[in-house]
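To: structure desk
From: M.T.
Subject: fold request, one chain
Message: Could you run this one when you get a chance? Sequence is below, nothing fancy, just the single chain.
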Amino acid sequence: MAIQIDQEKRPINIISILMGFVVVASLFAGVYFFLFKRPELIDVVLPAEIQSLSAISSIPFDPGKIISSDKFRALQQHGGDVPLPQTGRANPFLP
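Reply: Done. Structure tokens follow.
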């Protein structure tokens, strides 16, 4: 006569199965949206400040023409150069 010992069957936990399914589904959804789905293109409208800057940047600039103009040559310098103050000693390592 043989002794037969039956193992207890663990009950299936439905909550853990559902949580595993949710984790796997969210991983697949994340990979799909981040790697495979192309985003919709959005039309960008430039603000008025940038539009005015683009108009200003299209103005031609010739420095030679400005320097050779009579108005530039008529400019005078008022005041002299600011003298630089003496800073420190000639040899800072002397006591």
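Reply (cont.): Helices lie at 14-36, 48-57, 63-67, 70-73. Let me know if you need anything else for the meeting.
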